[in-house]
Design a protein that fits this description.
With 168 residues, this protein is of the alpha+beta class. The protein has one domain: VC0467-like, CATH 3.40.1740.10. Helices cover 24% and strands 30% of the residues. Strands 1, 2, 3, 4, 5, 6, 7 and 8 form an 8-stranded mixed sheet that branches. Strand 1 and strand 2 form a beta hairpin. Helix 5 runs antiparallel to helix 6.
Amino acid sequence: MWDSNFKRTVILLCAHNESGSFGLVLNRPLEYKLGDAVPECEHFDVPLFYGGPVEQNTLHYLHSYGKMLENSVKLAKGLYWGGDFEQLKSMINLGQIEKNRIRFYVGYSGWDAGQLDEEMESKSWIVADCLAPYIFADDPNDIWRKVLTDMGGEYKVIANFPENPSLN
């Protein structure tokens, strides 16, 4: 994708159905912290991430707490989306949430019905399996390269290709 919103991004597709698709950009940390958006969690010093260009006034989260957080949705082994936000704030304030097991995203990436399917048919996206360790990695800026490298073959070559070959 050459669109600046998606160039060299890794997107986790959280929902895909006949109404459309919902995903989160995983590898774009912002300059802001959770406390900037949720003052009652100011002491929980974790970065906010850019989830995508849609509804920049919303907050989403991925975590590995499973059903400990009511109403969370299992996406993959060891990976859950959302859950009861009031319960989450309480768990944060009680010290029950570890920083390396949760990520917060501002906005999201969305597609109308059929739009993502069309983009997939035109090979606008590379599809990989979802693995929780990528999401909770220490260096989120390296997720794109790591996913492609782990896929091997031609994808490993893409992972090492310079963003602007003319500067090489």
